[in-house]
Amino acid sequence: MKRLPIGQSDFRQIRNEDAYYIDKSLFIEELMHNNAQTLLLPRPRRFGKTLNMSMLSYFFDIDHAEKFRALFSGLAIEHSEEWKLQGKYPVIFLTFKDLKMATFEQAISKLLKELRRDVSRKYGYLFTSNQLDDLDKEYILNLRKGEADIFDLEDYLREVSKMLGKHHGIAPILLIDEYDAPIHAAHEHGYLSEMVSFMRNFLSAGFKDKDLITKGVITGILRVAKEDIFSGLNNLATYSILDYEFADKFGLTQPEVDQLLNDAGYGTDRQNVADWYNGYTFGQLEKIYNPWSILNFVSRHETGLRPYWVNTSSDGLIKEILPKVNAKAQELLFDLTEGKSVKATIADHTIFQDLEQAEAETVLGLLLFSGYLTASHLPHSGETLEYNIRIPNAEVQTAYKRLLKRYLNASEQVSNNELLDALLEQQPKTFANALKRYMLHSFSFFDIGKKGFLPEKIYHAFMLGTMAHLNQYYHVKSNRESGIGRADLIIYPKDQNNPKGWILEFKKKNLDIEESLEELAQSALDQIHEQQYVAELNGHGKTEIMCMGIAFDGKEVACAF
């Protein structure tokens, strides 16, 4: 059997070394038959995006048409009518997969370095082209010398596309791989707005003018909201894993996996392999496999079935959002972990501002497009596009256990640091935020039960136990008679010179209560004032008193202060 090209994403290298290659060349045919001029193709990591984009680059390249023709010998594209397009277009191919810097300035500096290299190595002939004017040559000369500013970089795709079109007499093919990698990094390191603004201008300059390019393809993991990145691209068509277009062009189909296993002599492992690595549905095509896992399994057959794909992940966004999930999202996540399928709507694009709310649609959409879930469209689900969602296979199932364990353990950090510190510093907004996250992680999901059914005394005991850490230096009193009623929780320092004090009143939302959780929290706060619960604290000389009404429902909580 031929060598397996694990970790290789350069089509030319794989073909020149005669490594094992699963023929995806009809991707070219489907692309050119598609009516859209620019296509966005989001796919999970390790599903062959960069390899396919590399193949497109070598196929269309007009500068090395004869040299690269042999790379496609024996592939299906040779028998397609689109074979006539081989070597007919200039190509711009950029990959952003490594543009993951800690600052915006570093990202721009690295991009400038990459573009300078491309201009010198790929398009050196433009410096002497008779078809270009002095302004064109001045632009690429400044770029090559590293004297371009950020506005020159934003114009790169437009300017180079225009020059290639002038020189060759035909508009180029424009390929952008992993466009969202620098956006993820920017979100993680705190310069999202700067990077989004740059990428919006950069992509719009290259793709907006329909006369500048023949065809454009953009790949990434997530579909970032159009208003954030693609607002200037009126000619953009998106085909995600929910669409039937290009469904078999990324990942491996069942016949392709069967052939690989037979070639390797492991055909008898077919069912075990399916249980571990099968299960994705792309559009209407079922039984899609992750190529990375299959190639690693065959290469390391003696080690058996292992979670290869999940061990390659950084997944910064997922690690960020899971500790914030609301009760609805958490219930769905636990159902999925038990092997259940759930019916739900999903957000088919990512708005980074929505990650803070961590609503079910946002969480499920992020997990789906990252490859942790798979979905099939339910017929007759109306305009909401409801999907049947599940974990695709045993390999990914192992990832869920790790992810849930990681975010459940985050509660200890909230408890020991943020929650009590925010209370003692009388920072009610910080306390409320920490309490919301603490509630999500401190209770076992199965102990807390369903919304509307947990007794109020459980919440009261939970809060009292949380405050027990304060006993050394504070009085912590529960159901203490104060004013004309009984406050649920009163806290004040044993130090008589410390003027601070705290009053917490709890309410639990029942099924027959029509008030929202926020309204219920406000009514708890109102009760503190109406019943004059501050009287006891005033009697102890406490004059800086934080009053808070807290309402619970399942693992959800709302605060008024």
UniProtKB/TrEMBL annotation:
Domain AAA-ATPase-like: 5-230
Signal peptide: none
Annotated InterPro entries: AAA-ATPase-like_dom, P-loop_NTPase, PDDEXK_9
Annotated protein name in UniProt: AAA-ATPase-like domain-containing protein
Annotated source species: Persicobacter diffluens
